Amino acid sequence: MLARMxxxxxxxxxxxxxxxxxDRLRVALDEGRLNLHEYxxxxxxxxxxxxYADLDDLVRDLPAAGAVxxxxxxxxxQRAADGAVSASDGAVDRTVTVRWLVEVWExxxxxxxxxxxxxxxxxxxxxxxxYFWPAWVAAPWGAILLVQTVTGLVGGEPRRWAAERERxxxxxxxxxxxxxxxxxxxxxxxxxRRSAGGTEALAxxxxxxxxxxxxxxxxxRVPQQPEGNA
Length: 230
What we know:
single chain; mainly alpha; 6 helices; 74% helix; DUF1707_SHOCT-like; DUF1707 domain-containing protein
């Protein structure tokens, strides 16, 4: 965790600080300390964080980077922790697999449901059981998806799919953060120009008043009046 100092919590965080926290969250995900839902939620909060306090809250329950290895007396506890991490990894794998299966089969299920509904309505309208033509849609497509499912499960496709999905979400979060920073940066120069213009106008006015006062104090010299008042 980043070192604390007085007044640090309220200080604005930089892009490098947000990226450092994002890297720590990724390590925690790889170690099984966070599941995919927790990682995604914290990653979005990391790129939207404004202060160091917002970033520190995201890793408060995670061990510091480069933590010291446990002592020999802590081996049983470490083994228990390893067992818990393994169980957590298994739960994450099952969740990822289910999501991947839904992603693969959802279009097929929706399409087959629609064509079967059309077949059922037409059969009911004709008062006769029509030829089940939806099988020509469901069978070839389903066979292709079945082969894709088997080869994907054997080759670890659910994990790669989840990692790619997380990368896309991360890029979207980074783009949102960049747009927000650019929007804030566009307002700052405009405000600075207005402030600079006001300062220059005030300086010109003070200089004019000083010149008039200097002319009035010189002996034998009549102060000049502005042309508009002549």
